[in-house]
Structure prediction request, 448 residues.
Amino acid sequence: MKRLVYFLLVFVFSTNITGKIFSQQYCITGRFDTTYYFNALQIDTLGNVQFGQNTDWLGSTINLKFIIAYPKISVDPLNKRPFILLIHGGGFIDGDKYDMKPVMLDFAMRGYVCASIDYRLGWQTNGDPTNCLGDGYSLAKANYRAYQDSKAALRYFAANANTYKIDTAYFFVGGISAGAVTSLMISYANQQDINSVYPSLVTELGSLDSASNTLTNRFTIKCALSSSGGVFDSAFVKANTKIPAIMFHGTLDPEVPFNTGFAYSCTNYVRTEGSNELKKRFLHLVKPFEIDYVPGGGHENYYPLPYVQYRSILFLKRYLCNNARQIIIENYTTLFDSSLGAFNGVIARNESVPAEYRLYQNYPNPFNPITIIRYQIKDSRFVTLKVYDILGREIETLVKELQNAGTYEAQFTENQISSGVYFYYLEVTEPGSQKLLFKDVKRMLLIK
Prediction:
């Protein structure tokens, strides 16, 4: 079950970063970008270094190791560099740190310090896991072991930052498939969240933050990238989170659902909410994110590796240059791109409360048969959202109710109407008096 290497990242940075640091320290022309800053001869590599030890699912003691690549100190003008931790895929059954080596070297040549890790594998599959004959709780424990080991690796690199000239304010980590799930979970789910779903895991396997090594160095994950990943519950992304994300997914992924479902599409396995559910959560909370999805795409192989790298590098560069955005891309076509200003500005305010009334362009557009209409209101108001045809005839009322401040989505599904131009109209009024406070109209195109 070796997985084709598709990389992903999760970004980790400290809570006291200022706009000055964002704009001057790592927003460097040509570095951390789509072109290489160093050549292969300027990269140092180190292999099979141990960062931890623990017991696997069969009771055997496993030494956990990593490989690492970074620009030679002698040729790198920076005293400290951002760090990327890569987590391989494999369904928590197979794969190893060398699966991610090409991606690790690629990032090192762009100027990062980058490592790839092993973590404990194995669960009771009873043959091919896609046959749905495995033990779902055993899979949950495999998930949890991977979370423990990845956090242990982060603690190790925080403790040894001086050795590799790592800036502990800029930790990034990611993976594919099982590695994507691990990256997202350690980004958004704390021990209490895990206990709410599987309360016996901490009793059986220990805590998330003290397993696999005895190091106590702290870190805070602030941004996530996922390729074919998901979480147990999108509500793990909380209103006070400061974690942007970039996600890649196929809408018909049978192993990690694009929407809400179960691992391997087996109802007896781990319940999972995928990229689309996370997207909805980010929209509602007004958080920076990018989602790239392919309608009808399966697991992992829906986008070629160069495209995944390209979009992810751009996302990281935007972060380093303090440019927070919300971007939705369907099969290489940008459907939505909205600026949220600066990352540090977004982080500094209450992002769950919009600063203005706004109606966004629907996506996808053109559409068939479903499109999403997004809008935001800055305070508690009565909201009406309607769809009209080109002659001004009302087609459907999507919203007609009192709503609290926030960002909302309404779904419009064509119902036996013809192809052509339609309009959607948002009206925000003062409750009781019906005084008009805001109105806007936009056009959309239905193509059958």
Q: What stands out?
A: Residues 358-446 form a domain with the Immunoglobulin-like fold (CATH 2.60.40.2550). Residues 1-24, 345-352 have pLDDT under 50 and may be disordered.
